[in-house]
Amino acid sequence: MPEAIEYLEKTEGKSFNIIPPEKADETSRVNSKAMVLVSFVKNEYGYYQIQVQDKELYNYTQKLIKDIFRMRITDIDREHRVITAECDHKGIALQIIDVLREKYNLSIVVSGKSR
Question: Is the pTM of this model over 0.85?
Answer without folding.
Answer: yes
